[in-house]
Amino acid sequence: MNLLAKNSPKERDNALLVAVAAGDRRALEELYLSYHRRLARFLSRFTPRYENIEEIINDTFMVVWQSAKDFRNASQVSTWIIGIAYRTALKSFRRQKNHNVAVSLEDYPEQTVDPTSDAEVNDWLTHGLRRLPVEQRLTLELAYHMGHSLEEIAVITDCPVGTVKARMFHAREKLRQYLPSLGGGPSDLPARIG
Amino acid sequence: MTNHRRFENSAEHHEVSALIPWYVNDTLEDHQRERVDSHASACALCRDDLRVHTRIFEGIGAQPALHYMPVASLKRLQARLDAVQAQGDSAQMAPLEPVRSESPWRGWIAASIAAMAVAIGLLAADRWVQFEARGEQANYHTVTSAAPRPRDEVIRAVFAPTITLVQLQSLLDEAQLKIVSGPTEAGVYSLASNSTLTVRSSLALLRQHATVRFAEATAPEPDSGNAP
User: Fold this and answer.
1) How many CB atoms lie within 10 A of CB A155?
2) Cβ A168–B47 below 8 Å, yes or no?
């Protein structure tokens, strides 16, 4: 089944999911290939290990295969799939106590790079994000990399809008501490960021 | 400074501040966007926050894309799906739960089924009695049931699993035996005599070889009384 000719990604996703619900393995494969990259990027914020990322993606699509018939269009297909991946990742996180997601400042050496240099920003940002608790880090990733709205993130993470706001608030506060130069005085930033 | 603190502590400031990440990723409704614009024009803290988060937003978006191999992962998913499907197929073979019906004929149907079951039971019992009386053997056997022995079998033997076909044939030639049946599930061969050599001699020849794990005569020879 080739549904790539559908008008929009949303329509294509809907058509593919309907086919998956009817037991069409090719539709599942098409959906898998179209989401793999996005999910891999999202999950790399959760774990850098590819085998873990692959396992979470495949667990996600096992759920998609088994639950497609229960999808009621209450959200977009993409939101539904990313929500499954989010919950699968959290379950995996709780199972693996020896994951390499750091939540302690002591796990990282003191920054020696200049965060105001564009060349260092990415690396520095990666370090800053790693120090956040997983829910806060994934909330930032959902908003800033995947471009989801507040309401979509609430659906994906299966929690109230207020909880998403609170997670984002705490993530911002911590990033402000970790990335002090980015959070510098008003006079310091406009020239670099503007 | 007073103006700055007034904004920082206001409910409006906190509400607008909470919207900044979604202002930055451009997913706010128009009226929310206008609210942020209006507030930020008078609030230095929010303007600062907007700049910081625009930078973070751009930084996260600019991080290098990962290049994985989705096809290899997909193959592993397909294998899992195949396994689940195979399990599902075998589950369908299991007896289904009886369907409950509210029909007034249900009692009669149940009674008819019971009567049929009794009749089938009686028929089966009758057949079993006849079967037993004829002394027939069932046309199946289990692993533990004794398989019928070939008529000319004189020795039963088990060989080492590592024995080659050439070694086995050489062994049988030496003991002047031939395979008439086997191997069974337990690896037992039935051997018949291929010459005038006595069973005891063949047995002795077999037992000399380390590749023979087990060898026993299945029927006493006429001269077995002289055996040590």
Assistant:
1) 19
2) no
Three-class SS state of B97: coil
pLDDT digits 0-9 by tens, B46-97: 998 898 888 888 888 776 666 677 888 899 999 999 888 887 777 666 554 4
Architecture of domain A102-194: Orthogonal Bundle (1.10)
Please write the tens of the pLDDT for every residue from B192-209: 988 877 888 888 888 888
Position A189 scores a pLDDT of 37
Residue type at B117 in one-letter notation: A
Tell me the Cα Rg of chain B. Answer: 43
Indicate the domain borders of chain A: 1-101, 102-194
Mean pLDDT (whole number) for A30-52: 88
pLDDT in tens, A79-91: 999 999 999 998 8
Distances (CA, A) of B165 to B117, B157, B169, B207: 53, 15, 6, 18
Residues of chain B found within 8 Å of residue A143, distances taken between Cβ atoms: 21-22, 25, 27
What gap in Å lies between CA A136 and CA A116, rounded to an integer? 24
Say yes or no to pLDDT of B10 above 90: no
Closest Cα in chain B, distance from residue A61 (Å): 8
What is the CATH class of A1-101?
mainly alpha
- Three-state DSSP string of A127-192: HHHHCCCHHHHHHHHHHHHCCCCHHHHHHHHCCCHHHHHHHHHHHHHHHHHHCCCCCCCCCCCHHH
| Contact between residue A60 and residue A84 where contact means Cβ atoms under 8 Å apart | yes
Q: Return residues 94-133 of A near B (CB < 8 Å).
A: 121-122, 125-126, 129
Residue type, A17: L
Contact A161, A150 (CB under 8 A): yes
What are the structural domains, with CATH classification, of chain B? 2-61 (no CATH), 153-221 (3.30.70)
Residue B53 CA to residue B35 CA, distance in Å, equals 18
Q: What is the pLDDT of residue A35?
A: 93
Q: Give chain A's length.
A: 194
Question: Which residue type is seen at B23?
Answer: Y
